[in-house]
Design brief:
The complex is a heterodimer of chains A (about 300) and B (about 270). By secondary structure, chain A is an all-alpha fold. In chain A, about 75% of the residues lie in helices and about 0% in strands. Chain A contains 13 helices and no strands. Chain B has 2 domains: about 1-135, no CATH class; about 185-270, no CATH class. Classes of the chains: A mainly alpha (about 300), B mainly alpha (about 270). The interface between A and B is medium-sized, with 36 and 34 residues.
Chain lengths: ~300, ~270
């Protein structure tokens, strides 16, 4: 009995989602026009009776209109399918934002199991796939998807930066510290790296993970405004990592304040899922209590 | 700067002309096909080819106009308002056989005026867009209603804002649109002092805030905090205020929401 492929199997999805070459409908349209002109010219010069010529010209005219109509219909259906694909990618985006990971995974599995119509939609779907894989702690797979995107898909500066950030973060989570350090150095050299809160967060995480809390605290205090400006509620990640760094530096007062700021913005369970390194803080510090109305 | 009334007049005139051209070309094509069977003996095939050629040429010109307009949203998002204005102006001036392209250009002008905080003009443009039959352009209709509701709130036309928001309930909104609508509802509720209604379903609203861009999240939570203070839910109010303050400074949050700064001066 043939077994079904595993859930979110990266090589299978990368291969299956490759876009197929498109049918050159415009070439057919131009060819059809040329053929019509030649046919009508031949009919005009033929020795058949005037009545037969009229009939043949009418048949050619109807044929031309039918041809144009069928090309238009094909184009219309193509656009509809492309829109459906884009809508599916949009739905995955929403599911990820809402942290509905299983549904996002299922939709990605179905979306990437067939050839993509648009390379852009495929690139977005692959980026989301990397996120979902990281959420399921499949960091090696996540890094391989990031690598594929960087190697195979042309990206603008902003997207390239986001992909590289995700890759560096997945490497850190995978404890692949050497490669992560190299990835961070590459990010620093790019123009986007200068004022990037994402990069600051990755560096703080690297310093916490490798036991350099003083550097983590220095980076956090220096870049706190940038983190707040660019990350929105995700600034909680910065506060949580800063709390861990303060704790390692034996500054319990600062650690308590940072821990409260982190937990006032984001549930503790979500923070510890993202950064298992902050687990020891739970037994030492009090999280900010949530009011009964929102608990 | 392109005057709004001129843009709307030109938009309506161009839609009428484009409809007439479309109908004329289609009628000419049908006539060419049906003329011979009905006994009009001429060489209509060449006329049909000329009609087809004109259609292709005008479609190509329309596509060019659409391409010019397609750059405007990214220019507006990057704050390059003058370049966006010139793109939209060029797109509105160029002839387009297809009404969707013209409607999209006018919508981009409404978005631009909204970004420039020219609320009244943005509202007029959004109304002009919404007065058209939008058919399969439902996404554009939703965006225009959100723009209209916000512009109306900013000029103090609360009834107009309420009407626009009510019309949005007919649509299935995307997550991004639902987040914008929540901020508009909170703003509206705060302006009319409907504190209990603002706090209704507070748990869900707080979760939605976590998905918003930073400043919108801060404003939303500050508005919720204001309602909580007004209804004497002090613990909740302080918690929401603290979340807002961790995202933005009070002056930044209260910009465009006169009186909201008060909550940051309350004790606790």
């Amino acid at each position: 009995m043939e077994s079904s492929p595993p859930f979110l199997d990266v090589p299978t999805l990368l291969e299956a989602s490759e876009p197929r070459p498109r049918t050159p409908w415009l070439h057919f349209l131009i060819g059809g026009f040329v053929l019509t002109i030649v046919l009508s010219w031949l009919v005009g010069r033929s020795s058949q009776s005037a009545q037969t010529q009229d009939m043949l010209e009418s048949v050619i005219a109807f044929g031309l209109m039918g041809f144009v109509a069928s090309i238009t219909l094909t184009g219309f259906l193509g656009v509809r399918r492309a829109r459906a694909e884009q809508a599916a990618v949009g739905a995955v985006d929403e599911l990820i934002q809402l942290r509905r990971w299983p549904e996002a995974g299922l939709l990605l599995q179905s979306l990437l199991s067939r050839p993509a119509r648009s390379p852009l939609a495929r690139a977005q779907a692959l980026l989301f796939l990397a996120l979902v894989l990281a959420r399921y702690h499949r960091f090696e797979d996540s890094v391989s998807v990031h690598d594929y995107i960087l190697d195979e898909i042309p990206l603008d500066d902003a997207t390239d930066h986001v992909v590289r950030l995700g890759r560096a973060m997945a490497m850190l989570r995978e404890d692949n510290l050497l490669d992560a350090d190299r990835a961070i150095s590459e990010l620093r050299r790019t123009s986007r790296g200068v004022d990037s809160a994402g990069l600051a967060l990755v560096e703080i995480y690297r310093d916490v993970k490798t036991g350099h809390p003083a550097e983590a605290v220095e980076m956090f205090e220096k870049r706190r405004d940038v983190l707040r400006r660019q990350l929105g509620h995700r600034v909680a990640d910065g506060w949580a990592l800063a709390a861990r760094a303060y704790d390692l530096l034996d500054r319990p007062g600062d650690a308590q304040a940072a821990y409260e700021n982190a937990t006032v913005l984001m549930p503790l369970a979500e923070l510890t899922r993202r950064y298992p390194e902050i687990n020891p803080l739970a037994s030492k510090y009090k999280p900010a209590p949530a009011p009964a109305e929102v608990a | 700067m392109l005057p709004v009334d001129v843009a709307i007049t030109r938009f309506r005139r161009d839609l009428t002309i484009a409809a007439l051209v479309r109908i004329s070309l289609l009628a000419a094509a049908m006539f060419c096909v049906l003329a011979e069977p009905f006994g009009l003996h001429q060489d209509w095939m060449y006329v049909l080819l000329v009609v087809g050629g004109i259609w292709v040429l005008l479609s190509y010109r329309s596509m060019q106009g659409t391409r010019i307009a397609a750059d405007s949203p990214s220019l507006i998002a990057a704050g390059e308002f003058e370049r966006a204005e010139s793109h939209i102006d060029a797109s509105l001036r160029s002839f387009s056989l297809f009404r969707n392209a013209k409607i999209l250009s006018l919508h981009h002008l409404a978005v631009l005026r909204h970004a420039q905080q020219r609320w009244r003009e943005s509202a007029l443009l959004s109304q002009a867009v919404l007065s058209q039959k939008l058919g399969n352009m439902q996404g554009l209709a939703r965006n225009s209603l959100l723009l209209l509701a916000d512009s109306m709130l900013q000029v103090g036309d609360l009834r107009g804002a309420f009407t626009a928001m009510t019309r949005l309930y007919r649509y299935r909104l995307s997550l991004g649109e639902a987040l914008v609508l929540q901020l508009l509802q909170l703003d509206y509720g705060w302006r009319i002092g409907a504190w209990e209604s603002v706090l209704q379903g507070i748990g869900g609203k707080v979760q939605m805030c976590e998905l918003m861009p930073r400043l919108n999240a801060a404003k939303s939570q500050a508005l919720l905090a204001a309602a909580a203070f007004k209804t004497n839910r002090i613990e909740l109010a302080r918690w929401l205020r603290r979340r807002a303050q961790l995202l933005a400074d009070p002056q930044e949050i209260a910009a465009g929401l006169p009186g909201l700064e008060e909550i940051f001066r309350l004790p606790g």
